[in-house]
Amino acid sequence: MLVVDSTDHERFTEVQEELVTTLNDSHLRVLVVILANKQDLLDVISPSNLCDALQLQDLPKGHPWQIHATIATKGDGMQEAIVTLRMQSLR
Ligand SMILES: Nc1nc2c(ncn2[C@@H]2O[C@H](COP(=O)(O)OP(=O)(O)OP(=O)(O)O)[C@@H](O)[C@H]2O)c(=O)[nH]1
Ligand SMILES: [Mg+2]
After folding, report:
1. For residue 27, is pLDDT > 90?
2. Cα(62) to centroid(ligand 1), Å
3. Contact 6/36 with Cβ under 8 angstroms?
4. Is residue 91 predicted with pLDDT exceeding 80?
5. Which of 20, 32, 68, 69 would be a feasible disulfide site paired with 81, CB 3.0-4.6 Å?
6. pTM of the entire structure?
7. HEC profile for the chain?
8. Per UniProt, where does GTP bind (predicted)?
9. What mean pLDDT is reported for the chain?
10. How far is ligand 2, taken at its centre, from the CA of residue 82, in Å?
11. Residue range 22-48: mean pLDDT, rounded
C-alpha cells in the first residue's frame, strides 16, 4: 500500500521513481494499492491525474495496481482499500 499526499505536487516524480525502484527490486508480484490521500484539501490532484503523474500504466512487468481516493483523517475510502488488500492476500 502506497499512501500519496495528493497536495504535494513537487514530490510526484520522486514517488514515481521510488515505486519503480521498489518493484524492480522485488520479486513479488503483489497488488499495489495506491491511496490518493488528502482529497479534502484544496489544490489536490485527482486519482485519475495521479495515475498519469505516477505513470501507473507503465509499471515494470505490467504490475497490477489499483488507486483509491482517500481522506485518512476521516476514514473516507479506507474501508474499500483495505478490503481489496485483504481479498488479494486470501487469493
Ligand atoms: N486534511 C487532511 N489531512 C491529512 C490527511 N491524511 C493525513 N493528514 C494529516 O497530514 C499530516 C501529515 O502529513 P504528511 O504529508 O503525511 O507528513 P509530513 O509531516 O508532511 O511529512 P513529509 O510529507 O513526509 O515530509 C498529519 O497532520 C495528518 O493528520 C487527509 O486525508 N486530509
Ligand atoms: Mg507531507
Report:
1. no
2. 30
3. yes
4. no
5. 68
6. 0.93
7. CEEEECCCHHHHHHHHHHHHHHHHHCCCCCCEEEEEECCCCCCCCCHHHHHHHCCHHHCHHHCCEEEEECECCCCECHHHHHHHHHHHHHC
8. 37-40
9. 94
10. 22
11. 94
40 a known binding residue? yes
> Is the Cβ atom of 76 under 6 angstroms away from ligand 1?
no
Hey, what's the cell of 76? 473516507
Straight-line distance from the first to the last Cα atom of the chain, in angstroms, rounded to the nearest whole number: 17
**Residue nearest atom 6 of ligand 1, based on CA coordinates:** 72
Residues 6+ apart with CB under 8 A from 72: 3, 35, 37, 38, 78
In the block, cell 520479486 appears at: 27
pLDDT reported for residue 61:
82
